[in-house]
Amino acid sequence: MVEHHRQSLRHRGIYNNITELIGDTPIVRLNHIITPTRDRIACAKLEYFNPVGSIKDRTAFGMITGAIEDGDLKPQTTCVEPTSGNTGVALSVFLNLLGYKKPIITSGEQIPAGKKALLTLTTSSMDLTPDDACPRFPGEGAIAAAFGYKNLPGYMVPYQYGNRHNPEIHYQTTGPEIWAQTAGKITHFISGVGTGGTITGTGRFLKEKNPDIRIISVEPSEKSHEFYGLRNTEYTMKPEIYDESVIDEKILVDSDDAYRTLVEMILREGIVAGPSSGMTVYGMKVLEERGEKGLWVAIVADEFFRYTSEILEKLQKFL
Predict the structure, then answer these.
(1) Which fold has domain 18-54+166-316?
(2) Pairing of β 214-220 and β 27-29
(3) Of 56, 115, 207, 285, which residue is the catalytic one?
(4) What is the pLDDT of residues 187-212, one digit of tens each?
């Protein structure tokens, strides 16, 4: 049986609004998928504890506050953002909250239904674009659609793939949190690559603290895959903000291995995560198979419920 130790309340008092809940997400030890030993502990940083449900809350809020500080976002400005969903959802929620105009979201046609529902409520419109809509951005039709607004008066494209405030927010928050939560003992940091902001910003911070920390990217092995928001950097556009010099190793993961790991996370660890997290945690299983030691932290980027209609059938075969 799993022992339960109730800790004192983490949140005390009343917050002014939900933006004060961004970050400070918990890290939890894995006890069954990867058994802890005297010289090995595998952990997951649960980013679905952010108020809008994903690590992209950090990215979206960082881009909004950065644009305000830079003078690019004004009350009359309409933001237009290409996204597979999580950044768009968080961006839309925070812009509405802060009193700015509802944004326009451009996305691929296969956006998960749960994200589409939230975006229907929070945006002025969604432009669902075929991935191959523009030869300038092969496989990135949503980016091409957003760039159509870039030079129009009254519009702004934050562009998470090239926005310096994206890795900056992870350098300022995600990296320091992990360092503090592990008391500086982290040896491996494992993350997927979507925009490259998380692994670039967090990796830079951790490398400054200890150059021996290994920064590991986990990417889909298939050229065509269904892991929303993740990319294989060999086959697709490399985001402008993605700094490969920070990366020590890239692990390619098959879809079945990721889905099987996600089922194990839900059933054996109680971590009700989205599909990309099956991939990042499987990256730690690779480390275990190689006999590596240390304290490992993998990003669990979002929660399960935004993807149920898309992934349930795929997961059932691993029950």
Answers:
(1) Rossmann fold (3.40.50)
(2) unpaired
(3) 56
(4) 999 999 989 999 999 999 999 999 99
